[in-house]
């Protein structure tokens, strides 16, 4: 779904009452007065839970002082997207993540026309990030996904692993009891423990877990 008609306001988060950055960005991008405004960190904190779809703009050098003076800005909130301007050098991934859901980053040496185009695209719902920043964030989130979806360490006994192997081969409870020389009720008891440890509800789910996590 295209968002070209999705009207949003850029809010420059600033400690200064003069808001020179706001004026500079407004003039540079030729945005209307209603499209960009200044907001103090205190105002942001007081309205954080009541407003959605806001684009917060930070001047890099000013933001370093802002973070020292104001703790716990809610930049990770899903209600906010952020833009960082006047960045003098490449930032570390941790530094980028400090700004929450970053939609745009502009280095201080970038041409004015590029900033104009980028701000317009961000207002229309798109991202405007340099390739190096995109690469950093992709690498970070791939690592996060991999860490959160890696196989869970489960304390299965040798017998329970044997039974899982039997399940993989399609054996019934009776066949498992015959193969392992145990009673069918003992098989059922082992299956109960296996299901509990794997947090699954049935044989099919247990087999799926075994196929993914047990070495052949």
From TrEMBL:
Domain HTH luxR-type: 149-214
Coiled coil: none
Pfam family, one: GerE
Domain of life: Bacteria
Keyword terms, alphabetized: DNA-binding, Transcription, Transcription regulation
GO molecular function: DNA binding
InterPro entries: Sig_transdc_resp-reg_C-effctor (IPR016032), Tscrpt_reg_LuxR_C (IPR000792), WH-like_DNA-bd_sf (IPR036388)
One GO BP: regulation of DNA-templated transcription
Full protein name: Regulatory protein, luxR family
């Amino acid at each position: 779904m295209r968002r070209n008609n999705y009207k949003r306001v850029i809010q420059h988060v600033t400690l200064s009452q003069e808001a020179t950055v706001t004026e500079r960005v407004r003039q540079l991008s030729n945005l209307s007065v209603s499209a960009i405004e200044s907001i103090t960190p205190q105002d942001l904190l007081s309205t954080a839970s009541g407003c959605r779809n806001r684009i917060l703009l930070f001047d890099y050098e000013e933001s370093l002082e802002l973070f020292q003076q104001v703790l716990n800005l809610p930049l990770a909130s899903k209600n906010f997207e952020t833009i960082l301007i006047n960045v003098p050098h490449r930032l570390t991934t941790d530094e980028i993540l400090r700004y929450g859901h970053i939609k745009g980053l502009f280095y201080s040496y970038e041409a004015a026309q590029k900033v104009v185009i980028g701000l317009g695209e961000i207002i229309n719902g798109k991202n405007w990030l340099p390739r190096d920043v995109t690469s950093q964030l992709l690498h970070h989130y791939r690592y996060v996904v991999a860490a959160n979806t890696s196989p869970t360490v489960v304390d299965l006994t040798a017998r329970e692993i044997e039974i899982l192997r039997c399940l993989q081969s399609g054996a019934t409870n009776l066949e498992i009891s015959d193969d392992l020389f145990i009673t069918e009720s003992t098989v059922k008891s082992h299956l109960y423990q296996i299901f509990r440890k794997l947090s699954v509800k049935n044989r099919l789910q247990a087999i799926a877990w075994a196929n993914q996590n047990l070495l052949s």
